[in-house]
Amino acid sequence: MRYAKWIFLVVLLTVLTSFMGKDKATQGLNVGNIAPDFNLTSVGTEEGKLSSYKGKYVLLSFWASYDAPSRLMNATLNHTLQTSSAATDVAMVSVSFDKYASVFQETVRRDKIKGAACLVDTEGEASSLFRTYHLNRGFANYLLDDNGVIVAKNLNADQLANLLNSLS
Q1: Is the dihedral of CA 146, 152, 88, 130 positive or negative?
Q2: pLDDT tens, residue by residue, 122-142
Q3: How many CB atoms lie within 10 A of CB 19?
Q4: Structural domain of residue 130, as residue ranges?
């Protein structure tokens, strides 16, 4: 019985200490961070280097055709940028993690993604870009200022529209 109390105490301390530090942000990059640069081979004529957009606001959207919520968000954000008069100074960089360029191209066509630099990283979830942006916790989007600093994260269409109006 005496050992049972010690075992209980050790288990209790282990459980309590395992939760320490869990309140820190671990889900990718956060507002205030500088977005890491990348250079992807473009499928079309778009520029595949993030730093080439320096001096302009950038909506950076990560998605994959197999992930319905991220695909829908990418299309919705693109539509918001296309229909907003305040979006003239914002470039969209849409990055897919589909393993096949043909699937990516068909998805872009079907989703009617226009006016965006549409890039694909065919290494998918094994790519260094996927790891750099910590996307194993879910696809994300980021609004970057003209210096590449993240000013907003995981925007929906309404939030993007409000931010665009405040920028103009």
Answers
A1: positive
A2: 999 999 999 999 998 899 999
A3: 8
A4: 26-167
